Amino acid sequence: MENYLSPSGGLDFIDFSFCPPIYRRRISFFLTQIIELLQAGKDFSLYLYIFLASMAAPYLPGCLSIILLQTWINRAHCAFVKYLARHMLDRTEKCRYATLKERVESVMARNSYLVIGDYISFVHDLASFLLNSVLRMIVIGFLLLTRLLCGYSLSIFYVYLS
Known about the structure:
The protein is mainly α. It contains six helices and no strands. It has a domain at 90-161.
C-alpha cells in the first residue's frame, strides 16, 4: 500500500494537514492499517491512537474558541460584579431602600451575566464572521483573475450600498 502520510514517505505525526483530500487519504490510510493489523493479529494501538487524534484534530480550534469565549464572559462578569460591589461598599444609605437593594442584587445575580454573555457572544460571532469573510475573499482573490476579482468586489460593494 502506498504511503500517503507525507511527501517523504515517513510518518509525520505533527503535520495533520486539513486540506480535505489529503486529510481523507490520511484517515483512510490509518483505518486501513488498523484493519490490516487487526486481521493479522498484531498490535494496532499506535495507528488507533493516531486515527483518533486525526479525527479529533479538526474540532480542536472550535472547542478552544468556545472555552476562550466562556472564559472571556466569566472574567467580564467578575469584573462587573467587583466594580458594582466596590461602588456599593460603605454606602449604607443606599442599602436601606429595599427596592434599590433588590434591584442591585438582581443585576448582580441574574441579569448581568446574561446581558454580558449575550453581548460578548455577539462581538465574538461578529468578529468570527468578518474574519471568515475576509479570509474567503483573499482565497477568492488568489483563485480568480484580477479583473474578475475587481468586478466581484464592486458587485458586493454595490449590493451593500443599495
